[in-house]
Amino acid sequence: QEVVSKIAAGEVIERPASVVKELVENSIDADSDKIEIKVNNGGKDLIQVIDTGYGMTREDAELALERHATSKITEANDLFSIRSLGFRGEALPSIAAISRLTMKTRTEDKLGGTLVKINGGEIKKIEDAGCPIGTNIIVKDLFYNTPVRYKYLKTSATEIRRISDIVNRLALAYPEITFKLSHNQKKVLETPGNGNLMDTILSVYGKEVAKSMIAVDYEDKYMQVSGYVSKPNISRASKKHQSFFINRRYIKSRALSEAISKAYHTLLAKGRHPIAILTIKLNPVLVDVNVHPTKMEVNFSREKEVASVLQNGVKEALSNADL
Ligand code: ADP
Ligand code: MG
Q1: The domain spanning residue 270 has which CATH number?
Q2: What are the DNA mismatch repair protein S5 domain coordinates in residue numbering (predicted)?
Q3: How far is the CA of 286 from the centre of ligand 2 (A)?
Q4: Are residues 64 and 164 in the same domain?
Q5: How many helices (H) and strands (E) does the chain have?
Q6: Theoretical Cys-Cys bridge with 209: which of 83, 87, 145, 205, CB 3.0 to 4.6 Å?
Q7: What is the model's pTM?
């Protein structure tokens, strides 16, 4: 039992950044308008996520820590029609199996909340506790009981970079949510949460990048593309700074990246990639998706069509821009 759950946990949780991704996605699913992430030593010592979401009752909290107990859906064939980011009910129990986890949570209709403490999957404490509405999860000593996994962790600097990449992307996908990230008590990111993508880009990438952005706003029969791409001469340009979201889900796709390069064509020096933050909206029934639990990579049908609409949208934006 214990071994099985540790193995399964390793499949979902590879590194501190996976913990952050899962916890923050849960906070987004819970309708939080503010999500605060505190990390120490690249997440190896501590990861804390505090949200202002709808929280859990004591029964919900107990259930949430059981494997495959998702409150979100029962069957997941068409991922894009799922409104929530999570749907497997694996993340929380997996994290709890390989760390020392403390959770405090409270719903709006209750005066008090619940405190749960779990070490290596074993519930140590579950009791009433005073706390604000929302959920506050502390994950300490990740992989303390799976030393082989622990050994594969990279330096604190590398792990925090991965965490910050993920938080940046989630922040760009949800400009209406305030994201705060700190590492060893130092502020790394704070977004305004005012719903404005440009203001969010400013917090994530800074003034120079924000100033060089060109708005993309394009509609095709089936799809809508909006967001920003950078002017061709921007210095920070790299594929790392391209984020694509289909119906608000982050997508890593070489085809979409290539579509952007094609739209710039000769405007771009060889081997250079513009910054791009682009959202594609389309009817969920038009795409089939499947995701690997740990990977950001998502396979989706109609990648070619999406790529070509993206290319047209970016091309149009560039031709109207003052470069
Ligand atoms: P999934 O997200 O796939 O449903 P998780 O293991 O990530 O599975 O979470 C299990 C359940 O715990 C969720 O379905 C949800 O009901 C509850 N939950 C987890 N995190 C939160 C949170 N921050 N706020 C409210 N509910 C939460
Ligand atoms: Mg989840």
Answers
A1: 3.30.230.10
A2: 201-319
A3: 25
A4: yes
A5: 10, 15
A6: 205
A7: 0.91
Measured CA to CA, the distance from residue 270 to residue 182 in angstroms comes to: 36
| Helical (H) or strand (E) element with 6 | helix 2-12
For residue 200, tell me if it sits in a domain.
no
- The answer to whether the CB of 135 is under 6 A from ligand 1 is yes
Which of 190, 222, 238 delimits the end of a domain?
A: 190
Residue 199 placed within a domain: no
Measured between alpha carbons, how far is residue 107 from residues 22, 58, 75, 114, 151 in Å?
Answer: 20, 9, 26, 10, 38
Phi, psi of 75 (to 5 degrees): -130, 140
From the CB of 70, is ligand 1 less than 6 Å away?
A: yes
Q: What percent of the chain has pLDDT over 70?
A: 85
Is the beta carbon of 27 within 6 A of some atom in ligand 1? yes
Give the distance (Å) from ligand 1 centre to CA of residue 29.
8
> What CATH number should be reported for the domain holding residue 60?
3.30.565.10
More confident residue, 323 or 130: 130
**99 CB less than 6 Å from ligand 1?**
no
Query: Which of 5-19, 56-70, 124-138 is least confident?
Result: 5-19
Give the pLDDT of residue 266.
87
Q: Which ligand is nearest to the CA of 30?
A: 1
Q: Measured between alpha carbons, how far is 90 from 294 in angstroms, rounded to an integer? A: 11
- In three-state secondary structure terms, 273 is coil
Range of the domain at 305: 207-320
Interhelix angle 197-205/156-173, rounded to 10 degrees, is: 170
Q: Is the ipTM of this complex over 0.85?
A: yes
Site to substitute for ligand 1 among 24, 37, 71, 118, most atoms within 8 A of C-beta: 71
